[in-house]
Amino acid sequence: MLQEHCKLLAVLKQTGEIVGRKKLQKLIYIAKKLDFPFFERYQFHFYGPYSEELNLRVEEMSHLDFITEIKEKKGGYQQYRYALSDKGADFLALSNYELPETKGILNVLNEQSSRFLELVSTVLYFEDLPRAEVEEKVVTLKAKQNYSQEEINEAYWFIEQLCKKAASAEANE
Amino acid sequence: MSDRFKVLEEEKVFKDPVHRYIHVRDELIWDLIGTKEFQRLRRIRQLGTTYLTFHGAEHTRFNHSLGVYEIVRRMVENLEKKIAWDPEERLVCLAAALLHDIGHGPFSHSFEKVFHTDHEQWTRAIILGNTDVHRVLTSVGGKFPKKVADVIEKTYANKLVVSLISSQIDADRMDYLLRDAFYTGVSYGNFDMERILRVMRPKEDQAVFKHSGMHAVEDYIMSRYQMYWQVYFHPVTRSAEVILSKILHRAKDLYRAGYQFKDQPKHFYTLFSGEITLADYLKLDESVILYYFQEWADEEDPILHDLCQRFMDRRLFKYVECDPGKQMSVWPELLQLFAAIGLEPEYYLVIDSSSDLPYDFYRPGEEEERLPIHLLMPGGDLRELSRESEVVEAISGKKRTDHKLYFPMDFLEDQRTYAEEKQRIIALLKAQEG
């Protein structure tokens, strides 16, 4: 019953709280790219990979009171904080859904800034291209974010670490 | 300059019920329309199972793709009066518009859910792979196919070009709203597209709209809102989608379990095993799928047989509105009762959510990823549409989610067997609606 919703509830249970819609979007995208079983469809948008399906699913869970959504002002824009509610926890328990072993990857992702996750997810989106072309895409498509070469290098290193962790999680399944 | 910039000796036109005429002057476009991959779109309906609700909705991805091309052609013609274009940029726009849906498969929404495929990846594969489309595009230049694929994927450097084909007010949406309204026969999908094109102004990242044209844009937003609830979210169409998805699930599960089909579903083999190639994918269309549904209606497996008969004969599931939060307490009992009367709940008790559908209505959003629609004010400033329009503000904050629970009411109403259990199920389901 509503398995894709349950997966998101399980993510919130594991991470405790996710601050920002952008962070939530990128976190699920990166997890999906690491072969965790998320099936929301993503397209490339203004801030990188974005899923309208995920956006709507989160809205549904908020209407069902399965998650709490706190809206707060942050500089010139609104930011949302998401956490699992008691009702959501009951629903998750009833569904018997369990996330596969993630070796703490979701928490590692949740500790990063949205800006960094935007870069990481963009690099992953273009993973089939040679690195030079990916960097060119980052510079062209993310001109306003003005990512430095150091940040791009860090993103590649971070992805490498994530892949190792994901592989060890898979081996332990 | 490449030969592919050549224009035809005589302009070709297609009669079209939505745009009256679709004009083709470029040899490239004419040749793309003639490719087998593009012709395949004639065998894929634009609205999937909607024809089971609105019988006129038999139009295809072919009609729609030509329509999007025609709108972009008109947009480009207008924009060229205001900005200088590289002639290749014009062809990139037109080719991307024509090919934006080339990767769609039969009933692609359900297909993608069941088999975890993505039509956008197939689009890229068709444009860049070993296809007639690729050969035609390459004749413009070696890098040309990639440019077209990047526009469709929204990763092209020129964001104005991307926004014409994919944004909150783009040629794709304009065509499908007008076309879907026309073919379904509903009266609320119309808006003044000519006026919108006239007030469109190019900016660096996207096209914006002169404030004086705000009411035409409002009409477009209203049309999108109405079509969302009245056509795209129609509960009967969703019932057909539920059955279609369950048929595909069942066939896949049977195949993996080694079930011997009477008529081997060879078109599905690589899809079922998760190893589908581009050549196999291109062989799938709705005539193939419906052929198998017809065949599977005679299969021994009772679930596959029943679901296929239901789909072919339009004996769809009924539904109740449901709140999964409240449903929690009765869910275990419902599952138990369904199993007791011989209905596998996995196939016969299905929650369908609004997030399962690929449509939305306009939301300006906060901390959102979608670029909103901007109005160009008389002083030159840009203002987000819902801040200027009370109509748009009123509908863009509306709740857009719902959940429905689908089940075979005809089976439950047949009280010759398991009468007591069936009555209890019906009572539990009706209680969901309050």
Topology:
The complex is a heterodimer of chains A (173) and B (434).
Chain A: H1 3-15, E1 17-19, H2 21-33, E2 43-45, E3 48-50, H3 52-63, E4 67-74, E5 77-84, H4 86-95, H5 105-110, H6 114-125, H7 131-141, H8 149-172
Helix pairs in contact in A: 1-4, 2-6, 6-8
Chain B: E1 7-16, E2 20-26, H1 27-33, H2 36-39, H3 61-79, H4 87-99, H5 108-115, H6 119-128, H7 132-138, H8 144-153, H9 159-165, H10 171-184, H11 193-198, E3 200-202, E4 207-210, H12 214-232, H13 235-256, H14 269-272, H15 278-283, H16 286-296, H17 302-313, E5 318-321, H18 324-327, H19 331-340, H20 345-348, E6 350-353, E7 374-376, E8 382-384, H21 385-388, H22 390-396, E9 403-407, H23 409-413, H24 419-432
Parallel strand pairs in B: 4-7
Antiparallel strand pairs in B: 1-2, 3-4, 5-9, 6-9, 7-8
Helix pairs in contact in B: 1-4, 3-4, 3-10, 4-8, 4-9, 5-13, 6-8, 10-12, 13-17, 16-17, 19-24
Please give a structural write-up:
The complex is a heterodimer of chains A (173) and B (434). By secondary structure, chain A is of the alpha+beta class. Chain A has a single domain (3-172), classed as Arc Repressor Mutant, subunit A (Orthogonal Bundle), CATH 1.10.10.10. Helices cover 58% and strands 14% of the residues of chain A. Chain A is built from eight helices and five strands. Chain A has helices at residues 3-15, 21-33, 52-63, 86-95, 105-110, 114-125, 131-141, 149-172, and strands at 17-19, 43-45, 48-50, 67-74, 77-84. In chain A, α2 (21-33) runs parallel beside α6 and α6 (114-125) packs across α8 (149-172). By secondary structure, chain B is an alpha+beta fold. Chain B has 24 helices and nine strands. In chain B, a hairpin with a 5-residue loop joins β7 and β8 (382-384). Chain B has two domains: 3-185, Hypothetical protein af1432, CATH 1.10.3210; 235-356 and 402-432, Up-down Bundle (Growth Hormone, Chain: A). The A-B interface holds A 1-2, 4-5, 20-22, 25, 39, 41, 43-48, 50, 52-53, 55-57, 59-60, 63-66, 71, 77-80, 87, 90-91, 94, 125-126, 137, 140-141 and B 112-113, 116, 118, 120, 153-155, 157, 323-325, 328, 331-332, 351, 353-355, 358, 360, 366-371, 399-401, 403.
